[in-house]
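Sample 1 of the test manifest.
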Amino acid sequence: MVTDSYLKALVWLVPLLPLAGFLITGLGRKRLKGHIAGILASTAVVISFVLSVILFFSLRKPGTEPLTVTLFSWITTGELSVPFAFLIDPLSLTMMLIVTGVGALIHIYSIGYMHHDERVNTFFAQMNLFTFSMLLLVMGSGYLLLFIGWEGVGLCSYLLIGFWFKNPDYNYAARKAFVMNRIGDLGFLLGIILMFFTFHSLSFSEVFGKAATFDKGAPVITAITLLLLVGAVGKSAQIPLFTWLPDAMAGPTPVSALIHAATMVTAGIYMIARSGVLFNLAPVTLTVIMVLGLATAILAAIIALKQNDIKKVLAYSTVSQLGYMFLALGLGAYSAAVFHVTTHAFFKALLFLGAGSVIHAMGGEQDITRMGGLKTKLPVTFLTFAIATLAISGIPPFSGFFSKDLILAKAFEHNLVLYVFALGGALLTCFYMFRLLFVVFFGNLRSPEVHPHESPRIMTIPLMILAVLATVGGFLNMPSLLGGHSGFLAFLQPSTQSLETGELAHSTEWGLIFLSLALLGTVFWIAWRKFLKQKHIPEKDDHTLNLAGKIVYQKLYIDQIYAFLLEKPYSWLSSFLFRKVENQLLDPLVDGVGHLTSELGTLTRRFQRGNLSFYLFAMVAGILLFIVFILFV
Amino acid sequence: MNEITSAIQIIPLEHYILLSIIMFSIGVLGVLFRRNTIVILMCIELMFNSVNLLLTAFAAYHSDLTGQVFVFFIMIVAAAEVAVGLSILVMMKRNVDSVDINQLNRLKW
């Protein structure tokens, strides 16, 4: 009992510390000098991480009851009763560890990366606020608390994308992210409302308990899950709401690493994995998720092939990897999706921080056609970046291999066509990542005026730690094929309710692994020949490209298509309403009311002539009229 | 008390009503046609008191004290009102050196 209350105290400290960090650095942003804000903010997140680790080791034994910590009763009105409570179970513990662990490393890295910036204190305040909101999102014990965190991270994302707000393009990118997220959030909110009317509760345990009474494929459950999916699609940048994520790279690179790679964009995956019970009852929604995920994975990978901005390549790669997670969710393999979230958090944060280190060294240059030959200049960055590239490409024994192979195996179990497409996407991933690696780090430096130098240790140490995690992260879930017992999936199973599927025969699995490895090897060889042997440098513009190359270079013209399909009709409609309805109907009406009043005023002001005896006369006459009216009418 | 009431009741009610009407009409006509503000003020008081008279007469005829007590309250309010009216008059005299009502033709805006 003593240890129990002790654990409960730890639970609410976890989100409280980043909040305190936000308040201190935010309120004291005018006074804090030098690195103090960064150190304070990092310390808060590091302590949160340590607390999360303690919680993890106290609660990791299988069969441990999930811990619910109620701070206070928040809303009680009618049948709605929402406590402000945290739910600590394997799924939220996993997410807490990712958020605080990777978040702490990125905070520390930012001390070095942002120290030139004049608004560094504001930066750390917003980063801490983000960490707090994200923790609220993953720890909340019901959909309403999740939604608050959801909105909080959206706000911080907007603030941090537009952190360098003096550049109008960055502001535009921030606005785009906000609006696209808003579209998703509306769906999510409608889903929550519908859920409340169906289950009369919003807490996870009650909703899932009552959901068991519904039949599989019940229309109301399908509607709820589809609306929740809209929210997840917006937050996790899936088709059709994915175009905000590449633009979000306008923010500082640590922001891209923390928010737009490791944590916030995985909120949608967390939410669906959390609601596994509901989604299991809605096969239609699962199919939609599967198709969306696969399409996003392949589409984003294709676009990434021809991008020349180092962060844009990584951004499209993130969209593509999120697509894989959605694919896993759509197959009902929620734990596999969360496993990919975990490994992806390691290697994608590493890639972004490495890219940040490169950009830092190149003095703000992001165009890979102007880089090259950095492997000797930035040895630590090169090594860690290479490890992350191997991990994301799915080459054993790095972490990406385990999580991606798991998803591919699930796809194979479900459908051969699905597997072929998913594998194709993985090959594209391998190609564009090695293209990036070779073009940036090999060959000769193509901008002679800069003299790159390795980043300070405060930036390289987080890189090294993440590189270790990206290497060994896959061993968390050693498949039975390699003598393990899928520890990670077993740990998550109580809170995600993944659909059980039959195990593949070991010979089939070996076959699949060798097939994918052979193909990956081939792709690696093609990339190696093209970019290393022939020293091919990506085209600076699309003039020399053929038609297909041109379309890919222009990101499949998706922004333009959206502009044509949505913005054009919308602005036409607004200008039509302005010219016809506003100018010719509403304006005369409103003006008419004004004119009438002023005309009436001109008429009545004649009585107001300022002559007292006239007033008296009017008064008496009025009274007489009144009397006459009463007596004779 | 009863003596006064019975004394009042000796005179027929119609006389009181007639007297009130005459007083009231004098007041109205005075307000309408006189230019001296003091006189106008006095005429207003005249109208006022005609109504008071009527009220007391009715009260006496109904043997109901409430009406008579009510008149006292009205008179207190009227005294306050006269104080305000007269002070306005003093200010008027100081500012335009006249108590002619037609001098007060700038009372707008």
